[in-house]
Design a protein that fits this description.
262 residues, alpha/beta, Helicase, Ruva Protein, domain 3, 2 domains, two-stranded antiparallel ribbon, 9 strands, binds S-adenosylmethionine
């Protein structure tokens, strides 16, 4: 019996599985990490094209069953929690995974945090989350998640998988996204923490103007926005990543002073 609390919605259709592997652009030189191999359908196709697959499965029952089936394959099967795996210790690798719903954003953030040798991620996730990840300014999908991912990489929505392709059938459709990870972030900022604090604060009240939504960050926010050549009456969702970076860099000298004074 699939365990709902572990996000167990399995894919069987070989044509969909092959399209996922194609989207991941794997060669015989690649080490692939698969999160949640489950019954191993995707895992075995990946093993056919990659140098090696490291597959991390939390469910002991599935792990033990798959362990028997993959004897002789170039697959290292690990019983453990993908949220805790030390990815930074691996040689360069690509991630390919049909992510369990309940850990979609935590796993993306964990992979970004430990991205030292991460080349790309090809993820099957809820369609709505995929649309937020690739969201562009001036759309309802654009927000903290879009900026957090697009700061470190280039996400592309590859194709939609209708919910009926999974067993058991989940409530929502999925999408496959491919994220190429940059060697350096898209923009260089003096203070990355401050950059993300501004982004989160601005979007926490996305309907307000920036001079209002960012008033808790600095009492001089209006002046700083003008210095950064950003109209204080604009809203968070209209700003590009480059504009948020410019704002952070204009704010960082005074922010350091405020911070020390406080
Ligand atoms: N790859 C398979 C497929 O495409 O059919 C299974 C995908 S299913 C959506 C997610 C898998 O992740 C399940 O096998 C589940 O047991 C496993 N899983 C859930 N939480 C996990 C975690 N924290 N770490 C590793 N695997 C996890």
């Amino acid at each position: 019996m699939p365990k709902k609390y572990l996000g167990q919605n399995f894919l069987f259709d070989p044509s969909i599985l092959h399209r996922i592997v194609e989207a991941a652009d794997i060669t015989h030189n690649d080490t692939v990490v698969e999160i949640g191999p489950g019954i191993g359908t995707l895992t075995k196709i990946l093993a056919g094209v990659a140098k090696k697959v490291i597959a991390i499965e939390l469910d002991y029952e599935l792990y033990a069953k798959l362990k028997e089936e993959i004897k002789g394959f170039n697959i290292e099967l690990i019983h453990g929690d993908a949220l805790k795996y030390p990815y930074e210790k691996l040689e360069p690798f690509k991630v390919v995974a049909n992510i369990p719903y309940y850990i979609t954003t935590p796993i993306i953030f964990r992979l970004i945090e430990t991205r030292k040798n991460l080349k790309s991620m090809t993820l099957t996730i809820q369609k709505e989350v995929a649309q937020r990840i690739v969201g562009k300014p001036n759309t309802k999908d654009y927000g903290v998640l879009s900026i957090a991912v697009q700061y470190y990489g280039e996400p592309k929505l590859k194709f939609i998988i209708p919910k009926g392709a999974f067993r058991p059938v989940p409530k929502v459709d999925s999408a496959v996204i491919h994220i190429e990870i940059f060697d350096k972030p898209r923009v260089i900022v003096a203070d990355e923490k401050l950059f993300f604090r501004i982004v989160k604060t601005a979007f926490s009240q996305r309907r307000k103007t920036l001079s209002n939504s960012l008033s808790s960050i600095s009492k001089d926010i209006k002046k700083i926005l003008i210095n950064a050549e950003i109209d204080p009456n604009r809203r968070a969702e209209t700003l590009s990543i480059e504009e948020f970076a410019r704002l952070a860099d204009n704010l960082s000298p005074s922010f350091k002073l405020d911070y020390k004074a406080g």
